[in-house]
Design goal:
The structure is a single chain. It is built from seven helices and ten strands. It has 265 residues and is α+β, with helices and mostly antiparallel strands. Strands 2-1-5-6-7-8 form a six-stranded antiparallel beta sheet.
């Protein structure tokens, strides 16, 4: 009997697909812990980088020992209590997944079009912030998770502030799909070097920090609130401005930052 029958061909194809699916599934399960570990390591590296604490040649884990993770209730502007965390099912500030929580009916909420200037649609009621203290135990650097929509994608990153909860230490994005050479210039070290020293709020407590078209005139008093826009990437620049305004404003960390300025950590 010929081996080139349709039945035998289909049988071989099905068996091949079955074997391949088993191999892929097994590999995914076996490699998942390693992937999770690498993902967490990358997150820590980006937090350290935004805070200016990343030192070449030194272990990320060792450097991260100086960083304290705390969960903030965004709606109250205060650190979440142990009771709140327990009721919300949050067992660890470090492991809390803000993106996943935003999709949870209990932990997240839908934003109205008027509220959603960052284009994120849903927002978690809680967020993990990162604190670095000086030798006296006082706040030295505060690192906040931020995200918002650019041109093609949602940009996820960290914005680090000095102890005044106003002066920028650094900004960095660890995940996005913006156009290389245009919106992708958010990864350019030269552009990121423009952020340190900028101010988020004016004396009235209003969010003023934003990207502008062209180059900020350093001789102008308002330049402290302005960062050079990304050349040829108007929508990505607008997206970065919008996410800063959202997360530093009343819908984001605004109340929490006001509390830090008044009461400290």
């Amino acid at each position: 009997m010929s081996n080139d029958t349709i039945g035998k061909t289909l049988t071989v194809a099905v068996l091949l697909c079955l074997v391949c699916s088993i191999v892929v599934s097994t590999a995914a399960v076996v490699l998942q812990p390693l992937q999770d570990k690498n993902k967490l390591l990358d997150k820590k590296q980006n937090i350290l980088s935004a805070a200016g604490l990343l030192v070449e040649g030194k272990s990320v884990e060792a450097l991260f020992e100086q960083v304290e993770a705390r969960v903030v209730n965004i709606e109250t502007g205060k650190f979440a209590t142990e009771l709140e965390l327990k009721e919300a099912g949050i067992t660890s500030a470090q492991a809390f997944d803000q993106q996943k929580a935003a999709k949870d009916p209990e932990l997240g909420k839908v934003l109205s079009s008027a509220e959603d200037i960052a284009g994120i649609k849903r927002q978690s009621r809680y967020a993990t912030v990162y604190i670095v203290r000086d030798s006296a135990g006082q706040l030295e650097t505060l690192i906040l998770p931020v995200h918002g929509y650019g041109l093609w994608s949602t940009l996820y990153g960290f914005l680090a502030l000095e102890e005044d909860a106003n002066t920028v230490v650094g900004l960095g994005f660890y995940e996005h799909a913006e156009t290389p050479g245009l919106g992708g210039e958010v990864d350019n070290p030269r552009w990121k070097a423009l952020w340190p020293g900028k101010k988020v709020f004016n004396e009235a407590g209003e969010v003023r920090l934003r990207l502008i078209k062209g180059v900020a005139d350093s001789s102008h008093p308002e330049s402290v609130y302005k960062v050079d826009g990304l050349s040829g990437a108007t929508l990505t620049s607008r997206g970065v401005s919008n996410l800063v305004e959202f997360w530093m404003g009343e819908q984001g960390f605004g109340p929490f930052l006001a509390s830090i300025r008044e009461e400290g950590v």
